[in-house]
Design a protein that fits this description.
Chain A: Residues 2-228 form the ABC transporter domain. The structure holds two protein chains of two kinds. By secondary structure, chain A is of the alpha/beta class. Chain A has helices at residues 40-47, 90-101, 105-114, 119-122, 131-143, 161-176, 188-194, 212-218, 228-240, 258-268, 281-294, 296-300; strands spanning 2-11, 14-24, 29-33, 55-60, 75-78, 149-153, 180-185, 197-202, 205-211, 220-225, 245-248, 251-254, 272-279. A six-stranded mixed beta sheet of chain A has the order 5-6-7-3-8-9, sandwiched between helices. Chain A has a four-stranded antiparallel beta sheet with strand order 11-12-10-13, sandwiched between helices. A three-stranded antiparallel beta sheet of chain A has the order 2-1-4, covered by helices on one side. Chain A starts with a strand and ends with a helix. Chain B contains 13 helices and no strands. The chains are: A alpha/beta, B mainly alpha.
Chain lengths: 301, 279
């Protein structure tokens, strides 16, 4: 279990992480979602004792990370897959980690197999690895000590779709076995396939929090109609029934089940061209807004 | 801390239903609560020293530094063995030739050990696996000194062997072997100290090798600097060590010199590593 309470980090005038509080329960995967520079990495560094918080606290399995006698055996951490000595081989990186944890060489071999790095790849220097291979190596190091908690910063970065699918299975198994997973990502699509719960952060603050199904699934139903007039009529009718409607780019996003909307359309005699549940809906919009506000593309547009 | 752990763990064991165990043994090992029932002890300091020794030689940079050091020593000694005059092929001459490259390259070994955590960002891994950073610093200092001693022993053995096989005599006469070993160890530790204080490889190398030399040059130019140099010039205070003629004042000079060039940067470096944010 990971507990984060009122965690705050200030650098002079700049507040990187602003009073965030949430808990990751055993058996769940929590996705820490936010645009680049939102404070995700700073928060994860505070949880793992690398960055001293300005205020607030974080505990892992009931203890401050620094108080864990041999943290690698309880918490698997991958904060930056590229932060490895480029002159070391992948196997050597894991061997050093194993020495820290008091594990034997057999466990290094097991960890390499688990992430699908071949013997030949393990013997190459990390400087020659692709980003995807570094991510696998980082995951192998995190899993090495057979931990109960995983803390992963952007683990899907650099993985191909097949790699993401594989990681999703790996983390799912880990959580189903009672493990606790906290991972960060700047991609909503990535988080929504992996995480049970989402904590969305923007400019250091939590802006949305809840289960993935609540946030991504149930909220938005995309509705399209034959023409703009029909769409307007439908929107008016839906609003009259106290439903939350937002229109964007020729479609409506409605906070209601498809069935409810279908019935309204039938009553109003509007011909629908699209009616799909599970659109990311308001979360995606909020996320895009956040991203636009902080990203360079947003500033240029 | 131990008591905190036991209470935390007994909470967990009472919380977990006993049926957990049966399902766990039936299936493959899972990230369940089993491991948490026996808190894994932290790696011992000896283990951390072993890790740091390994990290010093398992990279290309570290390995090449040692290879270059050996090659330079062998070339220098070989040249002396081939072209040296009859009276020059003594153990003392061989040692004198080997000490010079060691005095320059051994501190770099210490520097790289200290800075790689930051320049290669491996600190992100090292300090999550061992959050008590002071232990890592201690291990680095001990490992660098040990590695230095191993290199010195090998080089000394080679020099003695060369001297004996080329007909030199085993007479250390003019130099004190323990003194030379102590001097080289001081240089290695100075490297670690500068590496920790500056946390940047090129800066630390320049600092550790150039600053003492600049000091020496300045002191030969200005008499006031020369007065202070008696106490603070690392090359000067280690001089009597090599000759094996240390008296009371020499020890005092050595102590202040080492205090200024080793202990002070080591203290600054330790403080920086303990408080710095690892990114």
């Amino acid at each position: 279990m990971i507990q984060i309470e009122h965690l705050t980090k200030r650098y002079g005038q700049f507040t990187a992480v602003d009073d965030i509080t949430f808990t990751v329960q055993p058996g769940t995967v929590v996705g820490f979602l936010g645009p680049n520079g939102a404070g995700k990495s700073t928060a994860l560094r505070m949880v793992t004792g690398l960055t001293p918080p300005t205020s607030g606290r974080a505990t892992v399995m009931g203890h401050a990370y620094r108080d864990l006698p041999n943290p690698g055996r309880h918490v698997g951490v991958m904060l930056d897959a590229s932060a490895q000595h480029s002159g070391r081989t992948g196997r050597e990186v894991l061997t050093i980690a194993a020495l820290h944890m008091g594990l034997d060489k057999g466990q290094v071999v097991t960890a390499l197999e688990r992430v699908g790095l071949t013997d030949d790849e393990a013997g190459r220097r990390v400087g020659n690895y692709s980003l995807g291979m570094r991510q696998r190596l980082g995951l192998a190091a995190a899993l090495l000590g057979d931990p109960q908690v995983l803390i992963l910063d952007e683990p899907a970065n650099g993985l191909d779709p097949q790699g993401i699918h594989w990681m999703r299975g790996l983390l799912r198994d880990f959580a189903d076995g009672g493990g606790t997973v906290l991972l960060s990502s700047h991609l909503l699509t990535e988080v929504q396939v992996i995480a049970d719960e989402i904590v969305m952060i923007g400019r250091g603050r939590i802006v949305a929090q809840g289960t993935t199904t609540d946030l991504v699934g149930a909220r938005g139903t995309r509705v399209g109609a034959v023409d703009a007039a029909a769409l307007d009529a439908l929107a008016t009718a839906l609003r009259a029934r106290d439903l939350d409607v937002t229109s964007s780019a020729g479609v409506l996003l409605v906070n209601a089940a498809p069935e409810v909307i279908g019935r309204v359309a039938l009553e109003e005699r509007v011909v629908l061209t699209e009616l799909s549940a599970g659109g990311a809906g308001s979360l995606e919009e909020m996320f895009l807004e956040l991203t636009a506000a902080t990203s360079r593309e947003g500033a240029a547009a | 801390m131990t008591t905190v752990w036991t209470t935390g763990l007994s909470d967990r064991s009472t919380a977990g239903p006993t049926t957990d165990d049966s399902t766990e043994t039936a299936s493959s090992p899972r990230p369940g609560s089993r491991r948490s029932l026996d808190p894994a002890p932290a790696a011992s300091l000896a283990q951390l020293v072993r890790i740091e020794l390994r990290k010093a030689v398992d990279t290309r940079a570290g390995r090449w530094l040692l290879i270059v050091l050996c090659v330079v020593v062998v070339l220098a000694c070989g040249a002396l063995a081939i072209w040296g005059g009859e009276g020059e092929r003594t153990v003392t001459s061989y040692l004198g030739l080997s000490v010079m490259p060691m005095a320059i390259l051994l501190p770099v070994l210490g520097i790289m050990s200290a800075t790689q955590e930051w320049s290669q960002r491996t600190g992100l891994t090292t300090f999550t696996l061992e959050p008590r950073r002071g232990r890592v610093v201690t291990a680095k200092v001990v490992a660098a000194a040990l590695l230095g001693l191993i290199v010195i022993a090998v080089v000394f053995a080679t020099s003695t062997l060369l001297a004996l096989t080329t007909g030199g005599e085993l007479n250390f006469g003019a130099i004190s072997v323990p003194g030379v070993i102590l001097m080289l160890t001081i240089f290695v530790l100075q490297g670690v100290a500068f590496g920790l204080a500056l946390l940047n490889t090129p800066l630390a190398i320049v600092g550790a090798l150039v600053l003492p030399t600049v000091w020496t040059i300045l002191s030969s130019a200005f008499p006031t600097v020369a007065k202070a140099a008696v106490w603070l010039d690392l090359n000067q205070v280690t001089g009597p060590l090599v000759d094996g003629k240390m008296n009371g004042a020499d020890w005092a000079h050595l102590a202040t010199g080492v205090g200024f060039w080793v202990v002070l940067p080591l203290a600054i470096g330790t403080w920086r590593v303990l408080t710095r944010e690892v990114k």
